[in-house]
Amino acid sequence: MPTFADPKIDGARVIADLTTLRRMGAFKTGVHKPTLSPPHVQSLEWLAEALPGAGLTPTIDGIANVLGVSSKNGPKLLAGSHLESQNEAGWLDGPLGVIYALEAARVINTNPDFAGAVEVAAWCDEEGHFGNFLGSASYVGDIKDAELDKATDRTDGRRLRDALAAAGYGGRPRVVVEKGRHIGYLEAHIEQGDWLEANALQIGVVRSIVAIWQFKIVIDGMQNHAGTTRMAIRRDAGLAAVKLLADIDQQFPKAIGPRSVWTTGRITLEPGAPSIIPGRAEILFQFRDDDPVVLDRLEALLREIAAKHAKAGPCPIDVIKLRGSTPARMDERFQAAFENAAKVHAGGRSVRMPSGAGHDAQVLAAVIPAGMLFVPSIGGISHHWTENTSDADIIAGAQVFASACAALLAGVG
Amino acid sequence: MPTFADPKIDGARVIADLTTLRRMGAFKTGVHKPTLSPPHVQSLEWLAEALPGAGLTPTIDGIANVLGVSSKNGPKLLAGSHLESQNEAGWLDGPLGVIYALEAARVINTNPDFAGAVEVAAWCDEEGHFGNFLGSASYVGDIKDAELDKATDRTDGRRLRDALAAAGYGGRPRVVVEKGRHIGYLEAHIEQGDWLEANALQIGVVRSIVAIWQFKIVIDGMQNHAGTTRMAIRRDAGLAAVKLLADIDQQFPKAIGPRSVWTTGRITLEPGAPSIIPGRAEILFQFRDDDPVVLDRLEALLREIAAKHAKAGPCPIDVIKLRGSTPARMDERFQAAFENAAKVHAGGRSVRMPSGAGHDAQVLAAVIPAGMLFVPSIGGISHHWTENTSDADIIAGAQVFASACAALLAGVG
User: Fold this and answer.
1) B76-81 and B184-190 as β-strands: parallel, antiparallel, unpaired?
2) Domain check: are B343 and B198 in the same one?
3) d(CA B314, CA B327)
4) How far is A297 from chain B (nearest CA, A)?
5) Are residues A153 and A26 part of one domain?
6) Does A259 contact B at CB distance below 8 Å?
7) Which residue in A188, A308, A385, B260 could disulfide with A373, CB within 3.0 to 4.6 Å?
């Protein structure tokens, strides 16, 4: 591989920045920082104030995206993640990627030894308090004002427009992607699983972000008295749900790919009383994979199992697809850049892997090349305030990220 | 069998009385008559006004039980049921037994050809809006004032004391059973199942009221991200619940009695979100039988299955018994009296059977001999506004009920 100037990040500064953000909305050892809550707004303003130190001009736009723009000549990479959190969740989910981008910008943008610049973004509401990737979707031009007018917080019902106005961002224009400006988008994130830790690896190079196929399965039974209705004549929607899900658990392993996952998140029986045979069952079921062939195969199997159970009776079963995204492939050159940097700065302890969770990178990948880097999650814990990553892994990840940025801007790799 | 004067009921009057009660709180073809709602209070007052026509002195006491007392010499039977309904439910569940008692009292009490008298009761809140058989339990001395002070309506939270005061019954004494006054208690009810209809029978002679054993099954898992957590390391409480319930469905038929029923009324997965692996599952599970040996066997099997699943892992399972009543045996002589009357007035188309539902008769059975008679439910439908029984079956049942009362009062059978 050709040589290029390799930037040296400041590990202590990365940890200090993350710790500063952790104090805003602290909850136990994590944070409670819902979208546009005071600690989230405080975090956005902190980032905007930090961007000039990385040679970037800050903007907070009308959807509360923070964007740092460089006037440096040469190619430009866009990099970032998000600053809000799930309710009562971890300190690194989001901020890690923003601070990696900020640190890469600091070491690259203000140093004439390095070609081009890293521009920094913090996308608003990746965690979906008000919608679905609202900030990054707005940036790629996928959000209409009417959609924002209707959006409300899923926890407390607050209107997004009111929350934006209260933060001081009401009425501002929304910044959209400038075609051809960036060679691509890079995002770092905690893995949120235990694959890296279990295999003593330090860097995950994301090859794709899985698609989530979400289904509502509705089973119609006949509500009746749980004491007087003989077993033989019952049409128990709850029992039909149990048999269906037990069968899926048996059948799915035959059709999955090596990293497929499937989950029943909710079972609702109506009316849900101890002495009434359920007249209706509703199941929320999803599976995820990054291979379209596997996704199609699993949907076909789900429908086949449901049809078999409905035919056997006594309850009709309806399988309704709620969501069927496509997997987002990460750019091959970006994967190689992360891998090469991991050889130098992480002893080659990296692996290519799918991302089982959704990220803003999948939204950006629709308009520009995108790449993602993972660092290990201790115990695989995620979306919980105990979420953590060792300082050593955080610092190694920041170095790999900055090195890969510099290599890509230099046209190396 | 020895002869006795057989009373002749007025079928048209029975239908007319039931129709009058149906108009109070009418809902579609049924009624919506929660405990102490205006239509329920109107029904209680209507009954109190009707009792003198049956030679009875009416009282509505401090728990809104309506009681009709006779001053006629000779033995006395207590008979009745309840006048409130489940929400948006049927017109016969309760009123049928009250009107049968009223009609038997009319034809027996005022006629010197018949020995003794039928005293009529309408027990308040059999349907459990405020508690558990509050009216009949009060009558047998099982309710303390402090319990009534705390009781609230499970639908709207209204305090029982406020509801009693609003109806005009606040501060009244509660009437309790006078030891030795009655030779026993009789109650008629719709079957609420389809056994009589399916077998072309007209009268069900209840041999016992089943016990309900209710359990809460709690499964502890580990809440985690549904995208990033590999299948192999999951501790999915929802999946554990599904497997447990599917196994119960397989195993229970080996241990049941001929009329056992078992029901899962509710499954709650926490947090219940589409993309989160459930960290906790709670199941409401019950079984019913009238044989204590079968009940014990089913509980042992339930605990054995749960222990097996807990041991296989990955989730601990806790089986908590919420309710474990004993079956209530109906008096053998009362069963024979119903059966004999059915020979004369229902062409012998009767069967002895357990009651799968709870009734006030089980509360009275703890202090005096008790008997119950069922009439067919069309389609086995119950606790629904479409609940119904043919006029012919209603009238035949009233005749069998009155004849059995007369025979028992005459000391025949």
Assistant:
1) parallel
2) yes
3) 37
4) 18
5) yes
6) yes
7) A188
- Cβ–Cβ under 8 Å, residues B189 and B398: no
Query: B302, B324, B346: which is the final residue of a domain?
Result: B324
Report the CATH number at residue B261: 3.30.70.360
Residue B4 domain-assigned (yes or no): no
SS3 B198: helix
Please tell me which residue of chain B has the smallest CA distance to A243. B246
A260 & A205 share domain: no
Note if the bond before B173 is cis, omega within 30 degrees. Answer: no
Would you put residue B128 in left (φ > 0), alpha (ψ -120 to 50) or beta? left
Suggest the residue from B197, B236, B263 to mutate for an interface test with chain A (most A CBs closer than 10 A).
B263
Is A197 part of a structural domain of the chain?
yes
Asked if A227 and B236 come within 8 Å (Cβ–Cβ), the reply is no
pTM (2 d.p.): 0.86
Q: Does B70 touch chain A (CB under 8 A)?
A: no
Q: Quick check: B382 and A277 CB within 8 A?
A: no
* Run of H or E including B264: strand B261-270
- Mark whether A263 and A280 lie in a shared domain: yes
Domain residue limits at A380: 11-210+327-409
Q: Are A267 and B267 an interchain contact pair (Cβ–Cβ within 8 Å)?
A: yes
Distance CA A262, CA A297 (A): 13
Mind telling me how many Å the CA of A103 is from chain B's nearest CA?
27
Helix, strand and coil content of chain B, in percent to the nearest 5, comes to: 35, 25, 40
Note whether A63 and A177 are same-domain residues: yes
Q: Is any Cβ of chain B less than 8 angstroms from the Cβ of A196? A: no
Least Cα separation, residue B77 to chain A (angstroms):
27
Helices (H), A199-331: 237-251, 292-312
Q: Looking at the partner chain, which of A194, A228, A239 has a beta carbon nearest the beta carbon of B249?
A: A239
Q: Pick the residue from chain B with its C-alpha nearest to A231.
A: B261
User: B236–A210: do the CB atoms touch at under 8 Å?
Assistant: no
CB of B227 less than 8 A from some CB of A? yes
Instruction: Tell me whether residue A61 is in a domain.
Output: yes
In a domain, A2, yes or no: no
Per-residue pLDDT of chain B (413 residues; tens, 9 = 90+): 446 789 999 999 999 999 999 999 999 999 999 999 999 999 999 999 999 999 999 999 999 999 999 999 999 999 999 999 999 999 999 999 999 999 999 999 999 999 999 999 999 999 999 998 999 999 999 999 999 999 999 889 999 999 999 999 999 999 999 999 999 999 999 999 999 999 999 999 999 999 999 999 999 999 989 999 999 999 999 999 999 999 999 999 999 999 999 999 999 999 998 889 999 999 999 999 999 999 999 999 999 999 999 999 999 999 999 988 899 999 999 999 999 999 999 999 999 999 999 999 999 999 999 999 999 999 999 888 999 999 999 999 999 999 999 999 999 86
- Number of structural domains (chain B) is 2
ipTM of the complex: 0.87
* Cα(B368)–Cα(B370) distance, integer angstroms: 6
Inter-residue contact A162 to A335 (CB < 8 Å): no
Instruction: Give residue B122's identity as a one-letter amino acid code.
Output: A
Whether A226 and B286 lie within 8 Å, measured CB to CB: yes
